[in-house]
């Protein structure tokens, strides 16, 4: 494909008279082949600009980089925002794209919401996929990408691959890291969901305002000019601010929740009643009141399910079909997933709560079902937002009856130091570093009326220890470990 054709379509200026045949795009010099356009970005760990000579050596025909960078032997596409320029060019290369694309952002609930959106579409007869923390999920299965929002080349290549396989509808997760690094640009996004906003990732974004503005790029810049934004209402002042961002661009605002609009532009949650295996929701949309039996427990899952329904309606879904599908939603892996019931009779739930707000939501979700004690086992990730640890400790201690503090991906930090930061506010908590031993201890002390919550890892399959060269991922799956620990003595190997 001709570089000038890509540049014209992306509205990007090329140096006068430059032309080349483009065979691919790469942001890592080790992936450059002859004919590649290389994006040279200043990163958090290293400076991609240092790899320009190596990229040219490997056959790069053009380099997208800042104007002040020296480029010899290839076309220099100069940009103040190289990541964005690179993304817009690459999006012209990786075509076709699925017809209907929606994005979901928010601190918690992105994975659940994109997965539910995919399920509703599928039940409505569409060929749908989702991209996010659980990987790329298609009608035929799931493949992990390692990140919530994959790098821009993987993201765009996945999108066009899906379109070629006949997928017409995709819901993707837009993390704040992904948004601030332009990892998903250049596609037509017809609707977006905003689930909620609370503390996370302050190691990367420094302040709550900066973290919030990173998310707002989705509304301010990424979605189409005639997009609809679906908001879960009533979570906080941040939602009100997010709605203002949508109004400023004249986008259609669709509100969902107890304060949601009752008409065409919203879903009002009228009543919400937990049942033994799920919850009964009474909602109003477009002047019509409906009852839905959602087969999932936890108020937070009803929020995610209704935001997903809003996204489907916003992109042309039929209301009856959409709400019927909500009543048939399947659980999302690692989100209040019941792993096992112990021999004493205590159910063990696995949940991916890894922020103070999420931990509170998970505990609140289980509380109505607890007749005895709620036992919470959790930790906090190393090399991640340090300040959230004490808040998580406080929430867990205040709202559970028994707390066991353990390890959760210590990465490059000293595990006992992470635990100490949690223990400082988790009054009365037990400390058991080894996660298997912590889960075993919770199961051993649970009676028949108790419920165990194991939080933080959800679907994860490993415990990440060390960083850089010495990083290791030890196989670990909360669901299997809980089952093993709950098995009769001698039943597991
Ligand atoms: C802090 C962060 O987000 N880092 C991500 C980011 O790295 P970066 O752009 O800062 O890259 P860098 O490693 O400093 O390198 C700079 C540039 O040099 C290039 N390079 C580097 C080495 C080399 O030999 N040659 C070369 O060309 C790199 O490809 C890169 O373009 O871009 C990389 C490529 O896309 C990502 O792999 C990397 O994710 C790291 C591994 C990571 O852990 N990210 C986490 C924090 C993350 O993004 N999490 C969010 C989820 C959050 C949530 O769910 O709430 C996510 O979306 O997954
Ligand atoms: N709507 C919600 N409100 C509050 N907490 C929620 C909500 N949805 C999910 N959670 C909590 O957050 C956890 C993670 O949910 P989910 O994976 O859907 O979020 P995410 O935004 O994709 O997270 P990540 O940032 O890791 O990608 C859940 O296990 C639950 O504890
Ligand atoms: N997407 C989140 C996941 C955190 C999960 C938790 N198990 C941890 O390792 O902190 C992050 O990368 O911060
Ligand atoms: Mg996620």
From TrEMBL:
Signal peptide start-end: none
Motif Meso-diaminopimelate recognition motif, residue numbers: 408-411
Entry protein name: UDP-N-acetylmuramoyl-L-alanyl-D-glutamate--2,6-diaminopimelate ligase
Subcellular location: Cytoplasm
Binding site for ATP: 106-112
Domain called Mur ligase C-terminal: residue spans: 334-458
Keyword Secreted on entry: no
Recorded GO MF terms: ATP binding; magnesium ion binding; UDP-N-acetylmuramoylalanyl-D-glutamate-2,6-diaminopimelate ligase activity
């Amino acid at each position: 494909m001709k570089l000038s054709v890509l540049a014209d379509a992306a509205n990007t200026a090329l140096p006068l008279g430059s032309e080349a045949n483009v065979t691919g795009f790469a942001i890592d010099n080790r992936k450059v082949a002859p004919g590649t356009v290389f994006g040279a970005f200043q990163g958090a760990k290293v400076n991609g600009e240092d790899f320009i000579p190596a990229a040219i050596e490997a056959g790069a025909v053009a380099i997208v980089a800042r104007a002040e960078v020296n480029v010899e032997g290839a076309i220099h596409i100069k940009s103040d925002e190289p990541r964005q320029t690179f993304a817009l060019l690459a999006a012209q290369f990786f075509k076709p794209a699925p017809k209907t694309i929606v994005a979901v952002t928010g601190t918690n609930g992105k994975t659940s919401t994109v997965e539910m959106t995919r399920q509703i579409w599928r039940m409505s007869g569409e060929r749908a996929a989702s991209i996010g923390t659980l990987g790329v999920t298609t009608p035929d299965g799931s493949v992990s990408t390692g990140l919530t929002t994959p790098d821009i080349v993987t993201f765009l290549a996945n999108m066009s691959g899906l379109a070629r396989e006949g997928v017409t509808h995709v819901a993707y997760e837009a993390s704040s890291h992904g948004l601030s690094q332009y990892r998903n640009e250049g596609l037509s996004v017809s609707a977006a969901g905003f689930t909620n906003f609370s503390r996370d990732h302050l190691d990367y974004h420094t302040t709550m305002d900066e973290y919030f503005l990173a998310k707002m790029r989705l509304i301010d810049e990424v979605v189409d000019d005639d997009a609809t934004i679906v908001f879960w209402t009533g979570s906080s002042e941040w939602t009100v601010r997010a709605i203002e961002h949508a109004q400023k661009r004249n986008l259609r605002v669709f509100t969902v929740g107890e304060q949601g609009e009752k008409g065409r532009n919203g879903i009002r949650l009228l009543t919400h009643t937990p049942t033994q295996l799920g919850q009964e929701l009474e909602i109003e949309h477009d002047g019509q009141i409906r009852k839905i039996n959602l087969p999932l427990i936890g108020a937070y899952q009803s929020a995610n399910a209704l935001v997903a329904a809003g996204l489907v309606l916003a992109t042309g879904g039929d209301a009856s079909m959409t709400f019927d599908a909500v009543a048939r939603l399947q659980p999302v892996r690692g989100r209040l997933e019941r792993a096992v019931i112990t021999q004493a009779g205590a159910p063990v739930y696995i949940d991916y709560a890894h922020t103070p707000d999420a931990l509170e939501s998970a505990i609140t979700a289980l509380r109505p079902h607890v007749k005895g004690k709620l036992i919470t086992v959790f930790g906090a990730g190393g090399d991640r937002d340090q300040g959230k640890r004490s808040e998580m400790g406080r929430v867990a201690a205040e709202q559970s009856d028994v707390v066991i503090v353990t390890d959760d991906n210590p990465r490059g930090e000293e595990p006992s130091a992470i635990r100490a930061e949690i223990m400082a506010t988790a009054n009365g908590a037990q400390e058991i570093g080894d996660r298997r031993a912590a889960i075993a201890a919770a199961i051993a002390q649970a009676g028949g009326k108790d419920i165990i919550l194991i939080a933080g890892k959800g679907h994860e399959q490993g415990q990440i220890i060390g960083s850089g060269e010495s990083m290791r991922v030890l196989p670990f799956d909360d669901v299997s470990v809980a089952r093993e620990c709950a098995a009769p003595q001698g039943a597991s190997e």
